[in-house]
Amino acid sequence: MGKFLRDTWLVFQRSMLLTLRNPTWVVVGLAQPLYYLLLFAPLLKKVRAPGMAGGDAAFAFFIPGLLAQLALFGTLFVGFGLIGELRDGVIERMRVTPVSRFALLLGRALRDVVTLVAQAVVLVVISLPFGLKVQFAPLLLVLALMVLLAVMGASVSYAAALILKSEDALAPLANGIAMPILLLSGVFLPMAAAPGWLQAVSRINPLRYGVDAARDLFAGHVSTAAVYEAVVILLALTVASVIWAARRFARSVA
Amino acid sequence: MIIETKALRKTFRSKRGTVEAVRGVDLAVAEGQVFGFLGPNGAGKTTTLRMLSTLLTPDGGEATVVGVDLRRNPGEVRRRIGYVGQNGGTWREATAREELVLQARLYGSSKAEAVRRAADSIEAFQLGAFADRKTTTYSGGQKRRLDIALGLVHGPRLVFLDEPTTGLDPQSRSHVWDEVRRLRSEGMTVFLTTHYLDEADALCDNIAIMDDGAIVVEGTSDELKRQVAGDVVTLGFGADGAETVPTARKLLDDASYLRKAEESGTDLRLYVEGGATAMPQILRELDGAGIVVESIELHRPSLDDVFLHQTGRSLRDEAA
């Protein structure tokens, strides 16, 4: 166990160093939610729908969803980096050392989580002038849910990268699943406004649970059905995707 | 023996069917030597090397590497060997020093020890001039030196080098040769693959020639060449010699000095006893039949001749 933690730390340190040395993607990842905040959220002020009060409340509605979205979309594309590392032979070099295989995966996922939390904090701070009200304890819970979404996104992305082994195949796949996940999450408009069948479909979307829970938490409601649902479902899905990615990793990288 | 294998096998299954990449390799490599795997691309050299360095799991057979059972305890084998892949494996944005320190730490060194080992490697492999620059700025030769240093930073007794000079310019190539010789003089065992004949000839104490997943022949360079007894006379018949070659061969087939003849494009290669006396006879014979010889060359057998002798194909054609 000591060796495993040490290995994970070493892999994390190196991944983080390289990310900091070339932080373009961290900035780009943050730019997208900022665009939504500045260029899209104002449109919601005049929109009336179930769960949307309009006016400045539109920001309070929109920003929690944006955070949940950042968590998943910020990590869904990390597999591209892994494909580059596979091609450069870095992974193979590591495989011949006694380093723990699981640490190779977890160290990278940890880097993705730290990056995401940093992005999230920046987004929250920037959102404050737009009328986002934050309480400390619920914010921590939101961040915890975001970490779950991020680990899930990163694991799925790494597993897909190991299966496809090519950017050309990963790009359409990642984009192809990102779009419906986004549209069915209720980030833009409340899913309560959707027809019944669309609501039903959105129930299989993990992001939707994160979005609903984040809204309740920012509103100061910690003990709601949406929060419990999100914790249970996201925890289960995250554990499942980590196991999947770890097995994929063990198989192609053992 | 630092490496011993028995009937080591590997089969790859794909949608297009199964490929027997390695079909029963028996090896015995003594400690302290440079052992070379020579063969064309696809012969199974790299697959064997990857099995011995734990990157691939064998489908059958047994192997002991640095005293450890490869199939039962690959983790312990990893601790005891070094491995340098064909294309190396460094992050573009990291420096040589950072890579060496991390590599040593992955093998269990403390931070202070890793820093010391990295400094030693930088000195030994003369990486000092660029050790703190990102690897993306390195030349091919500089990068190769770092790759090899990375494979050795933890001080293994055995190192695997997979085609260490492929794609290098002549100067970098000779630099790598010097490194291999230095490692050997320090008592290390070096196991390398190559498809360059001169490399195997110049570096290796023992050579195993591989073809089509099996070892065709094994021994020292001299032993192998001795198998192709006598001398080699190569006759060239010029641009449209392809038709002449079989005729010439038939004509010389019964000659007493001839041991073996091989057709190779527009060339006819004759393995003869006493090349100096055979040459005039060959020319007289061909001249008498009105066959024009464009060039004639006499040389001692090379590893290429050994390969051709054993497989009926030229290694030069395949490697090109």
Automatic annotation (TrEMBL), chain A:
The keyword Chaperone does not apply. GO terms for biological process: response to antibiotic. GO terms for molecular function: ABC-type transporter activity. InterPro entries: ABC2_TM, ABC2_TM_bact-type, ABC_2_transport, Nod_factor_ABC_transporter. GO terms for cellular component: ATP-binding cassette (ABC) transporter complex. It is a multi-pass membrane protein. Residues 24-252 form the ABC transmembrane type-2 domain. This is Transport permease protein.
From TrEMBL, chain B:
It comes from Actinocatenispora rupis. This is Daunorubicin resistance protein DrrA family ABC transporter ATP-binding protein. GO terms for cellular component: plasma membrane. It is found in: Cell membrane. It comes from the Bacteria. Pfam families: ABC_tran, DrrA1-3_C. Residues 3-237 form the ABC transporter domain. The keyword Transport applies.
